[in-house]
Amino acid sequence: MDGDRDFQRALEDGRKNQEVKTLLQNWCGHARIEKFGGVGLIEAQTGFPIGHHSVACDHAPMAGSATWLLEDAALDFYDRNCKACKVRLPLRLPNLLKLVDRRDRDAAKAAAELEREKEQQRQAFEIRQKTRQALRSESSPSEIALLDDLQQLDVTRSEIHAAKIIETARLAPEAFGTKIIEYLYSLVEADERWAKEVSLACLQIVSTDHARLAACAMSCLANYSAVPVAANILLDQIDEVVATSVEASIKCLCLFAAPPRDTFRYSEPERHPAALQLLATRFPAQAEKTLDKLLISNAAEEVQIAARVLPLVYPVRIYPISILRSLATKITRVDSLVDSDRDSEIRDVVHELEACLVHAMLVDHKQTDEMLIQYFQGASTAGEARIVGVYSSLLRLPNSRSKEITQITNYAPYKTALHRILVLASNTKNIEVIHEILEALRHVPEQLTSLGANEIDFLLGTAALIDQSLTAFTESRRAAENTETFYAHLERENHRDSLLNLRAATLKFASHAASSDPQAAAKFTAFLSSNDRWSEGFHCALVQALPPLMTTGALTNAVLPFLYRAMIGESVFVRMAAARAIGEMGTCRVRELPSLVHDAFLLLLADPIIGLHQSATRALERVSLPPEYDKRVYRLLEGLFVAYYQDRGQDEFLVTCIERLLHQHEKQDLKDSKLKRIVVAVLMKVDDGTLLNHSGSWLLRELVDVEGFYDLVMRLIRSSKRSEYKDDEMIFLLRHLPKESMLEIQAELVAWCKDHTTDRSIVAAVIETLTTLGSWNMAAKIAGYVHTATPETTQMRVRKMHLKMAFLAAEFESLLANGHTDEALTCMTDWRNLIKELNLERTNG
Amino acid sequence: MRQGFVPSEAFAARLSAAEVLLTFPSPSQECDWNELASELDSLSLSFDNPASATSYSAFAGLMRILSSLAQWYYTVLNARPDAERFLKSAKSRHKLWLQEYEKNLTISRLLEAAKPIEVLAEISDVVRLLNAIGSVPLPIGLLARAAPFHPMQMKATAHEMQVPPPDLTVAFLKFQVDSIEAKNVHRLTPGEVHDLEIEVRVSRWPNTQSELELTPVSVEPASSYEFPTFRFVRPEGEPPYSLSQRGRAFLKASQGLNARPFEFKYMAEFLPAKSEQPVAIVGHRTLLIDGTSTATPISGYVEMDRQLIYVRESLRQLPGISQLELQNILTLLTTIFNLAGSAVQDALFPGIRSESQFQEDVRRVLRSNPAIGAELDEHANAAGGITDLSFHGIPIELKVENSRLFELSTGIRYVAQAASYAVAKGRKCAVLCILDCSEKAGAPRNPSELVQLVIAENGVRVCIIVIQGNLRKPSALSR
Fold first, then answer.
1. Fewer CB atoms < 10 Å away: N or C end of chain B?
2. Is A767's Cβ below 8 Å from some Cβ in B?
3. Contact B55, B17 (CB under 8 A)
4. Average confidence (pLDDT) over A510-524
């Protein structure tokens, strides 16, 4: 939800939901609205219930479903639960009945309309029957049999009878006399939809009046009926088609040629473009006019239809200039030229137009490019972005899921697109355009690396120009900082980040492209050696772009001096970039590097500047130095651990540091458990949220056997920052705590479970773990708490019974453990009674 | 996030099974024990908690064994034939059951309760046994095992199902420079072409057509060296393959005295880069090349320069020595080596000299070096004694030796003193400079022969330099 249209619609829906909410609250004091999912920004700002909501009531036996429009959920809930409710607590008027009455009135109207239609159909059927009766008296036995089949088809409307009649036409065309043929024509011409497909299929076989047959087919296409058969007739009888009937049939043929994709199906629907292509070849002017008309329509659907079929109608030649112009106009000003209240619909239209223009670029990139750039001049901010989107989509096309291109034969269109976006990248100030370019450069397919290699100079030059723009922007930002508002500040920060990303993406693509071609690699390394008074930021970006280039030994060797200089250079930022680049290279490649590089990396790790040692430590999360460095790395990490433990306030890095330290500890197979004990003591002081963010990692599992770790587990279980997404991790820790630790905290766990009976997963895990350790009494006690805490409402009755069963199961084991076998058998009787009660509840419910 | 719980009704199987055992041989218990065991098995499969799953699975297995014992009990009581087969079956299955579970501590109570099966002989014991097993509590499983996220995850792909090929390893067997095995730090003369010979063994060749490339990787700029890249095409025959090749190595630039040696590491990879790559590259493949040029004088005396480079290489191997300390001692030694050379060339120290005179001479020479100048300290305190001279904490102990037949080895007795000063200053090396004023019977010796690096007892490296004084005039030697 990111545009004005969606915002307005959400606001409108929120207002409606608010009204329904009031009606529901007036209806019953027990009913309440429950939200499904989180609170969005619009909801937070307006206070309207926007999003999916459901209705709930403690006395309702059945739960309701959550819907976007609360009215749907409220009416459904009313039908299921409120109609026969005896405990309703009415409050005031108007109430839900207002909606119910309106719904019932609408339903009654619809039923009456349906009845009227049925009556009309009945009368029409009687007339048709009389016509067939009249025909029977003048027909031969074979024709009578055919009329009987038609009668059956009219009654049953089944495919079996339809197939039977068509098969008769195929095997015994002589059975179709003049009168029958005339009758079939009359059915088609009278727009009898039930018989149109069969009649046309038969007439295609038996009729000799081709002109009339073609006219019928065209009329069917104009009415969107019997389309496959009509399209098939069109292929046979194209010479008989009258030019005046073409325009009316084009839209239907477009839909047949390229059906829209089903929202709930991934696969592309089957296409049948032959008839449309033939018609467009035979009647080009009419086809062009109709397609253009569809394109300039205000209806989103019509624009999409036209955009989808254009590549099929003009597969190898450029679209007529009028159509190309319409496409460019539409994509530039789609927001004002298409009527829609949904931004998603506009996006779909843009997507189709983009694909259509991408095809145009592939067919004739020069003309299409000229046209698009003409429109770019006068386009709005969003319009510019949409035009750049065409170039961006073209560059990503070889990797497209639906149109993957494995071998590119003509690079010219891609080259034009790449040039265009690179030129724009260096001089645009439009943030949306920058995002489109970023999208293209971040996902350039493998097939286009050779293009990048040919354009390596252009890429590197563009990156340098982007850097200049960035510098200019940063300068202007400093000047404006004092006067701008908070939102303007955010916008500017966002713009700056986008430029940073654009520079990085351009250099990464250049580096990747250079790795595929020795000449390009030579140019890249020559550029690195030139050191043409780069800005510090550009130097950093260049260093971070190196890993994709280091694919072979020769390339690694070519850029290694540059990377090494960066590692030991004066600039802190460049050294940080070098540490990150090492982290990107992968352990295998890093271990292959000369020891001087490893030594330089250790210097980064040992550096007192925060950014440097933190970058180096984070790089160690992804790569490892050769084993001979393990001890030194361990010592340096130990130093960092001590420093960060004493100087609190950077818990996030402290935990990362601990992780790396323990990893090294593990690698060296040190038996000393002192470190782990210290780590647990330190972690006890680390912020819960930080620790829980890391709890999916190996760190906590590694410490599970350490003395005193149970306190940490208990703290995390109690933490208000723990979400259900961390349940698996907590359960793992509970299950793997040593027995003594569990016994140590069992009283605390029981007390916690008593207060948190709704935290079902953790409570269940505690019960399981306690029974595993032999504390059946405690487990039964917790199961009892959970059962008791569950309210005895209609809605919760069945759940409460299930909880009682769980309690009885735990109680049963507990009694056995205490040697009270007789009481255990009594428990069994309770269990059987409960099962009976539950079955009864199910039968009644 | 936990997705599911075991349905509570499923525990009926466990409760019924326990009830059947506890009330045995009550005639009211008309149920199929094997069916109960199957239900318990299904239940165990649904548990997420491994301990509960194991306990239920073990209990299910035990129920099947107890079923045979119950049949034995009723067959004997009803006087039906061939009752012993049930007992035999139960005992045999119990052995198998034990093999599976006896090491499992989570079911220790169940194991204990089932132990009497081994020695069961009378049907009167069956009731007691079954009642005892029925009264063993089991851990509860409430959380259900999560279903796989996607069925595709369960299916191994065709790629995964392929048997992985054996490891691809490249071992460096030989690394020779000018037909001599590459040393830890190998000296190459800059500006001269040298032979570099390499031999590798490859465990197997990747399936795709590719060649093996051995590339030198270095942090030095490409303009400073030219080392060969070795390429091998797929050899004939069966693996492992031994491959060797020779190339030319050329250092374009010489290095300064204080510079670290050039480091070249040979990387092995199969080309194209996307083909299979070695999982392990083993053996010596790093060349540390010293390219210090002896053509450019350091101390002014070629032979002394060689000694200086030798001392530098030895000190570099000293663990923990800092680059700065190394640089400082080399600065000192350069000047002292020059003094040792010129002492012979110009007979700088005629006659007998005292230590204080010698100290003055040495101090003057050292101070005149701009790299030392004011940084040279005199009589600094260290370890309760007074050093003669020191430079950035590196002690320079000066001695004058007048005894006859003085040998370099004689100077070792002063090593401990110099080493004590060094340790006190936190340094790892020291200089011991001895002026040999003994009566000379013959011509002076080559000063490079009077230099030695020794290791003191405390680990400090002490460089002993003997400066020859009291030299006889060459004409006097002819008389």
1. C
2. yes
3. no
4. 93
Which site among B22, B24, B142 would you substitute to test the A interface, given the most A Cβ atoms closer than 10 Å to its Cβ? B142
Radius of gyration of chain B (CA): 43
Mutation target to probe the A interface, by most A beta carbons within 10 A, among B8, B55, B108, B289 is B8
Spatial distance between the Cα atoms of A25 and A318, rounded to a whole number of angstroms: 62
Cβ <8 Å between B229 and A554: yes
Q: B379's torsion region: left (phi>0), alpha (psi -120 to 50) or beta?
A: left
Q: Which residue of A has its CA nearest to B262?
A: A596
CB A659 within 8 A of CB A694: yes
- Asked if A769 and A710 touch (Cβ cutoff 8 Å), the reply is no
Q: To the nearest whole angstrom, how far is the Cα of B3 from the nearest Cα of chain A?
A: 9
Strands B211-217 and B381-382: unpaired
DSSP, collapsed to helix, strand or coil, labels residue A254 as: helix
User: Exposed, middle or buried, A622 (CB in 10 Å: 0-12/13-18/19+)?
Assistant: middle
A338 closest CA partner among A297, A382, A381, A385 = A297
Q: Tell which phi-psi region holds residue B116, choosing left (phi > 0), alpha (psi between -120 and 50) or beta.
A: alpha
The pLDDT value given to residue A61:
80
Contact B222 A561 (CB under 8 A): yes
Q: What are the structure tokens assigned to A469, written together?
A: 């723009």
The CA-to-CA distance between both ends of chain A, in Å, stands at 40
Nearest chain A residue to B274 by CA distance is: A551
Percent of chain A whose pLDDT exceeds 90: 68
**Residue B140 with chain A: CB contacts under 8 Å:** 767-768, 771, 779, 806, 809-810, 813
φ, ψ of residue B264 to 5 degrees: the values are -125, 125
Residue B383 has pLDDT above 90, yes or no: no
Q: Give me the mean pLDDT over the A545-561 stretch.
A: 92
Give ∠ CA A507-A513-A519 in degrees, rounded to 5. Answer: 110
Token pair of A378 as six digits: 């006068």
Contacts of B136 in chain A (CB under 8 A): 816
Look-up of token digits 């003997």: B466
Neighbours of B467 (CB within 10 A): 26
CA distance A551 to chain B (A): 7
Taking the C-alpha atoms of residue A294 and residue A282, their distance in angstroms, rounded to an integer, is 19
Give the C-alpha separation, A325 to A291, whole Å: 12
Confidence class for position B402, pLDDT limits 50, 70, 90 = confident
Chain A residues 213-272 with CB within 8 Å of chain B? none
**Which chain A residues are Cβ-neighbours of B255 within 8 angstroms?**
none
Task: Return the residue matching tokens 């129920």.
Answer: B63
ipTM for this model: 0.75
Q: Left (φ > 0), alpha (ψ -120 to 50) or beta: where does B320 sit?
A: left
pTM over 0.90: no
Phi then psi dihedrals of residue A573, to 5 deg: -65, -40
Rounded to whole angstroms, what are the CA distances from A482 to A429, A469, A631? 21, 21, 50
- Of residues A806, A813, A828, nearest to B19 (C-beta): A828
> Which B residues in the span 85-114 are in contact with A, Cβ-Cβ below 8 Å?
106
* Contact status of A695 with chain B (Cβ, < 8 Å): no
> What is the DSSP secondary structure assignment for residue B301, as one 8-state letter?
-
| Contact criterion met (CB < 8 Å) for B52 and A596 | no
pLDDT digits (tens, 9 = 90+) for A429-483: 899 999 999 999 988 888 999 999 999 999 999 999 999 999 988 887 666 666 6
**Residue indicated by tokens 């629907």:** A269
Most B CBs within 10 Å, among A592, A728, A753, A759, to test the B interface:
A592
Q: CB of A814 within 8 Å of any CB in chain B?
A: yes
Token pair of A41 as six digits: 């920004």
Asked if residue B2 has pLDDT above 60, the reply is no
Closest CA to B443 of B412, B465, B468, B422: B468
